[in-house]
């Protein structure tokens, strides 16, 4: 369905041909300062037309808060967000001999929507169009605002591969970037500002970014398309998030990411490469947590004393787990990869078969992205924010409920040295 | 939480130290013939102790139907399934100087459960133990029974990599198995019986299976562990399943698979490799669907005439999409990979830090799997069945509701040749 | 939360001070002909200002479909509905010495919203204002359209009491109207057109309506307010609706009705009066169902042959059950009462205590309904439609799933005469 | 479905003919001391056979905790509860010429279950039997334990009418008990111990109880049955509970109560009688909250200083609202009525029609309650506990999330005197 989240519940709506697209955010904490200016920046980052590499439509995508705030403060009631559809040009999609109407576009959603619903929108991709992601990004911006203010959470995504150009190519010795010091340093400090210095590709390395730009341009010129991978890091995430056994945090992140159009895969922490590593190497030994995290030393996060006090006392020496163990966050950086296929809509002629079972040739007109990776960056960030926000509220309910119970004399039969500690944590 | 699914809703319970583990299945269609003998085979396939390669505990894992059926037929009421905990040996987990109680086990869930809940089970992994998956497999067997009887659905998983031994190793030219004819032939015909001929590894290729067996034995002898990948195929799945925009079928599959303990990644269809392939190659052109599918030609599926009539009229020439387009099934084989990390519990001594923030050495006693991949096979199948079952019921509600509406004169402005068809499909 | 329904899922938003109010309807069957003209009539019936008895604001309440349809047909994607807030006059609520801001209004939601959210909207009732019901009525109109077209369902509500003036006053002999022939005749044939002949009170009896009108006028003149009861009947509802054990149809109806602002009670069928009647009288004996229902004989319902064939073969001689037995519909008329308290906002001065714990006098300015019953009529109808629609889709999923299973030789050991029949119904 | 609650989620299972009945409770706070002895008392209160007035079966109904606790403390994982079915006597239900199998029992669920599911349980009521309520009572006892320990909540239900014998009969002057001082005094102090002094009827007034006992005996002797009303009070409920707009607390209570078998109506606070009262009388003026509540003065509630500090600073002089305003609790006593119809199963012969559409006579054997009211008392209490518990956790999540936000300079434009206060409450 079009609802995501149990506690911070987002319902989105909208196709490209309708009056507007948008969402309702239900369950947002009251008392949060929120205006359109908190939401618009990510809307603009998502917007096409930021460079010659992305589709040149100039969608304004101005977001309006329709309800749920007053005097710039959230009321606790549903927040409704709305973005007008301004630049439709339906002819581009259906025009040119109308053959786009006779053929379901290969690897697009035309055929399956018709199989599912029996009807389909005439123009563009209807609900399967990229325009659907506007509601996600708008809602994600609200979640991010809360997480940043209340927990110092930072979420940054970037392009880590385009086609076969990798920022951290896997090797036989290092099948996963999880133990690559350069990767770990990058995710420890990278910011959105830094990522956007590498527009339009958003890969935070001059050399690799240049090569990726060339790859994309090459595919654009061939009227072809290419896929790639977005990597995302979540810093300062509270420990204890994730709801086993079915709603483990990586399961929710995977759900969220694989719901983004054009995704093909999801990896948490060491990922598929980590499956090739011995357990003795892969296990993340515990160490005493430092008083100041690297992010704080870098001046990225500013935590209140209370936030600091909620920090776990142990952390891990390595981080193959990607900040999640047993489906629950441990306070270390959460990082993951999301793979996006090459866009299905290409300028080249394609041999295929029509609704009437007759073979023929389909040639798309319109404006098409040769690569969605750069635009996917804020969408990945938004979905990450929605997952973390929902998990924060679930854990808040639990912690708050438990905090009202009397302290137990000793909860579990732990070794002598640990017992004091555990009582203290009651 | 411990509930999965909206329509076919499974709630599981149980730790290794309690009286029993099990589940409640709510929403199962009434009138389905169901006894314990439909469920037990997958319970037994999941059971440890099937060979020297897996943990030697002899858990009987006999399932009992507590409620929801009468005279071997489902009543439509909740079905309760229960498996006794018989072979606990809690000393194995806590013994040996009790140091396992003083240290949170690295990359296990001890620390995060304590961070989350403030208490944790003393013996084994509590709710994070592999024993939690019993409820999943039991519920999955019911879903499978329905899907097989009503739709001819076949779900088969197998081991496709252990460590760096791959059944279909990715190459520079073929970054994904999706276009490898040997892979496509395998998933078109492989059965559970065939997979179990390759016990204990469950990789359906004599040569590769042998190598994998050696790899696992090597890690066992080093008191180390190793990960790998399970591949799963779903055949004869009805078209139209999946609930955009957030509950696309691959999103639900990803959610389900990443909720299985020890998973690190999920790929649908061409997966991460597919992100390196040009769109012009990756797109799956449509072709007229054959009267008989390969599975039927192989005698695997026996469909009723009614099932046959619900088949889509088009299929795709290639299948990089993995049977899902726009988040919705198109009737082609669904296939995906699930990566499992090396088990966290290893016999080797590990330097780590205790609950009391003191460094020390942890050495696990107990019985430990050097590799979970073979046992994960039926768990992956079970979760796949739960996802498809839920999606089938969601789509049933939609289709059935739509079927009562009058036929529209013409629903969408399609090209002339297609319009007749689409009216016909109303 | 602000979401209602599992299958036909409605999320509403909006306060009186924001840009707009509205809703998203997710899960509506595709292929339904739907334009604003299907929705507007109930919006207009809900609108204040229809007579001297109701509040004189002239809200236009024009509804716009923002997304989810094309060419007047639903696409299966979320339907977004929006109504501008046009006529705010915030001064009326906050004005007059501002004392309305210093005092939480007695029996209104000011105090509890502040207790819950820590903030509250300044003008009017914020989310607790009657304007919140616009989204319900809009969504309900879509549900009604589907139910009418697909199942011939008719939902009609009317005013059955105002203060102590009852359409069917309970008596010692007849503590419930359920056995009153005049009541049964009324609910069998009453239509919305008929009810609206008795505007502004909407009690379909000239004499009683007149008395009620006088009661309301009397309270209006005293700057006081009065409550009453709305009775609602649902005809031609399919049998088999309702999801035991927790989501029985009467439980869902009760939930829906008691979520309407100002409600104090809900009764199904014979209701509280029925609790005073002996079981031997209260039990509804079964009889063979007639070929034509009274509603059809009255020319109210026109069913297709297929709808007719889905009719239960038995019905009940009496209908104390109100069409629901064991939480499941039996095909007979569903009827229920909803009690509404006197509106909390009255013109009279009230002694009360302020936010600062100081006693004082509160005198509301603004425009206030002396009685909400007449305007509540379309809101009750809307919520009834949402409940039935959700239950229809739940049951569709079940029936459709079961219909694909092979017929069992004999499902339950029934008496000899009945056994044939039950096989036939498999 | 068979799941209730979003945060404290209860899934029940079980028919009378199966191995066991029970439930899974997901989301219970960890660290709560819990053993079977916390649950058994309410199981026993629910048990039939407590006197000659109720059904004489001696069901032992011993509850076992299967999972979710260790060393008598909840772990935060799902708690599974199980009660064996011991005393089935299926012949009683189906025996005696088997005519009970040929006829759907009037006003029972036989017919509608068959309409819904196409199959039905052979013995007793299957899932519609009163045995289904065991899972509710068991789960409710856990919720109650938490609410009592963490919030001092007290939930007490009692019989307030049987047939036409009322504890507080409505009069023309006092159509509702809400303003009756005797009623208010009773709900302020009544305890379960006091209620059980009036076994088997559970009406806490010697005179009325005696009359009720006679009424029930009279109906038993006539092989007939009679209904009645259970009144329930919830004391010390935190303010701020309830989730507008659809999940107002009274809507959730109504949903919960109307899901109990045999219920016909629900009233909150002044109820239907309150709809006859002028607004000027019905409005509950605010007063400063006393330092000690009447319950505390009576020595019933013992609150911690922290619980005391969470008390609202205002309360209401009268309590027509029943402790809920705008769908949200205000801290005053919550009270409500639940109407139960006369049991459908009676010993008298009934003229009715069989599954084969043939008229005939049905005469039940078996053991039947002439009145369910006394046994319904603990079921009403259990469902009340489940509703409040779920609402407490929802509000915990909200409050806890909001508490991490910086204090706003001034949230709403309130009158001067109130503004300081409101800042303070941020």
UniProtKB/TrEMBL annotation, chains A, B, C, D:
Task: Tell me which Gene Ontology terms the entry assigns under biological process.
Answer: amino acid biosynthetic process; aromatic amino acid family biosynthetic process; chorismate biosynthetic process
> Which InterPro entries does the entry mention?
Chorismate_synth, Chorismate_synth_AroC_sf, Chorismate_synthase_CS
Leader sequence residues: none
Q: Cellular component per GO?
A: cytosol
GO terms (molecular function) for this protein are: chorismate synthase activity; FMN binding
Is Lyase found in the keyword set?
yes
The cofactor binding remark recorded in the entry reads: Reduced FMN (FMNH(2)).
- Names of required cofactors: FMNH2
Q: Name one Pfam family in it.
A: Chorismate_synt
The family note in this entry says: Belongs to the chorismate synthase family.
Q: What protein name does the entry list?
A: Chorismate synthase
Source species of the chain: Recurvomyces mirabilis
Gene behind the chain: ARO2
